[in-house]
Amino acid sequence: MNRWDDFYKEDSRVLSAPISATSVYAKSIFDSKKCSRILDLGCGIGRETLALSNNNREIVGVDLSFYGLSLACKNSKMQNCNFVQTDARFLSFKDNSFDGIYCFGLLHELTSNTWHKQLEQIMNEILRILNKKGVLVLAVLFGLPKNGLPHVRLFSNEMFDNATHDLICENKCILYDIGCTGSTDYRIIRGTFLKP
Q1: The domain that contains 90 carries what CATH number?
Q2: Across-strand partners of 175?
Q3: Cβ proximity of 143 and 187 under 8 Å
Q4: Which structural domain, as residue segments, surrounds residue 156?
Q5: Of 47, 112, 125, 150, which has the most beta carbons under 10 Å away?
Q6: Methyltransferase type domain: which residues (predicted)?
């Protein structure tokens, strides 16, 4: 069991939280680029995964939390949506197998002493499984929140840019609201990238 299994069991607010503005943004990007196969990397309970869907695309949500994925499967009524329990550092998908990847809520969870290596492993996997000209929508917590979150690593601009240096940046911005909690205590940095 990991801390997310415990979190999903203990905090029912996550089940009723609205989808984030970032997932709405990502869906519009994936729609405009006609992405037919999308990966939601770090999908949790699948709320954002379902928001990314449409009838013309396959969605795969991956997460390490068994309990979160069991909730995702229970709540998903779509036939074109699958959920897989796996570690984002060691994905079992073939090279160039996704047109789009959505990643929000995962990278800022890397808090161990080896977080640099873990980040590099995840970004290498993203590059490996993303099609040429495929699109990545990536978002992480940014800056210094007032109330603090001891379980997350807040990204700086430099950290974000270093993580995405192998990709072509189409758009990058800082948002002053996570977009799903109603709280403005936390900011996110969000980028849209293409694989060269």
Answers
A1: 3.40.50.150
A2: 188
A3: yes
A4: 3-194
A5: 47
A6: 39-138
Global confidence as pTM: 0.86
Per-residue pLDDT reduced to its tens digit, 152-190: 667 778 888 888 999 999 999 887 765 555 555 667 788
Closest by CA position to 175, among listed 143, 147, 153: 143
Whether residue 59 contacts residue 53, with contact meaning beta carbons closer than 8 Å, is answered with yes
How many structural domains does the chain have? 1
Cβ pair 20, 104 in contact under 8 A:
yes
Dist CA 146 CA 143 (whole Å): 10
pLDDT in tens, 83-125: 999 999 999 999 999 999 999 988 877 767 778 888 899 999 9
**Token output for 107:** 């990278």
Instruction: Give the pair of three-digit tokens for residue 125.
Output: 């996997």
Closest-CA residue to 126 (of 10, 42, 28, 33): 42
pLDDT tens-place string over residues 129-160: 999 999 999 998 777 655 555 566 677 788 88
Task: For the chain, report the end-to-end CA distance as a whole number of angstroms.
Answer: 38
**Whole-number Å distance between alpha carbons of 23 and 42:** 13
Token pair 């029912």 in the structure block, residue: 12
| CA atoms of 81 and 115, how far apart (whole Å) | 30
